[in-house]
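Many introductory courses stop at the sequence. We go one step further.
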Amino acid sequence: MSTKRYCYSCDLKDDSKLIAEYKEYHAAGNAWPEITKSIKDAGIVDMEIYLTGNRMFMIMEVDETFDPAKKAEMDANNPKVQEWENLMWDYQQELPWAKDGEKWIALEPVFKLA
């Protein structure tokens, strides 16, 4: 199986209490099962989120079936995913250069060790 990597960034609100709550939602076993199922059903085989200060970086390994537009459509039609996304907006905020309503922004690759 071949995989591809996608990397994104998003900010959390710069509030230590909110950041702690967000981390708790994402601690091992705490994410809602419907959310992890929707991630896997979209062809995402691995996902990690890293945090520095209030800036997050998400790294996804996806299989050949993954399509970002299809994932967005699946999410838009899944009430539980929408509930989760609305909850996460209590913690997340747009990056300064994001388009209106845009949350996770794709990172631009600038170096790869060959």
